[in-house]
Design goal:
Helix content: 25-40%
Low-confidence stretches: 1-16, 18-30
Strand content: 15-25%
Shape: globular
Strand order of the largest sheet: 2-1-4-3-9-8-7
Largest sheet: 7 strands, antiparallel
Number of helices: 7
Mean pLDDT: 85
Number of strands: 9
Distance between the termini: 40 Å
Structural class: alpha+beta
Radius of gyration: 17 Å
Amino acid sequence: MVGGGRPCAGRRRGEHGTRAGTAAKDGAASGEVAVETASGGPVPVPVAVTGGATVAVAARRLGSGASAGYGDAVFDTASIVKVGILAALLLRAQDAGRRLTARERTYAAAMIGHSDNDAASALWRVIGGADGLDAANERFGLTETTGGDGPLWGLTRTTAADQLVLLRQVFGGAGAERSELGEASRTYLQGLMGRIAPGQDWGVSAAADGSGWALKNGWLPRGATGLWVVNSIGRVTAGGDDYLVAALSSGNRTKEQGIALVEAAARAAVSACGRRA
């Protein structure tokens, strides 16, 4: 089961709100990739990218603003879009001068903490689907993210760099413009990302040196190819410093291969930021 929801009958699905299709266009060939820091100096990712898989990663050290990244390919979000859905909902609530309703909070907790897909679909409708997500993302400063068609929120398209922009809206960062989200909204979203269900807490957390992390993962098998999209975004604490990390991948032969790839990319990017800070 993918994303914590129930599979739909009649066609193969990875997550409610997604459908079978082609994998993201490759931006990296097989072999070893390298994370580049803003000041140059490649840092090898300690895992091979095999079988035509694609990976991209972006990281930023909070406080110093040191950054590192690799790749500019566009990926399907799978369930990492749930962070964007909730951010859009919180922004709408702020604009209306209201708090989230009890039902919205229940949906939000299930959507983030357990990756519940029915809850995501409900809130996708509340924010106005792709139009609502795109409008919020424009205010957040995302420029390479497009909401999925109709109910297909999991087929929203994005880049690692754009996901880092979203994380900076949620967690802050050196040199970032003022967040569109108020302090209460940011604290609420951060708290949910720090309470992920056991078994769904892999990904960028591999770059943390303990329990200091807050994240959201996404995973999706593509019906046309049998290959997996595996993504992870969030904040980690390592060596006493906080880092924002977005690691995205596609074309993985298995979910486990994708997890290993994004975890290796996250560790390399955090290491690179630490060296250049």
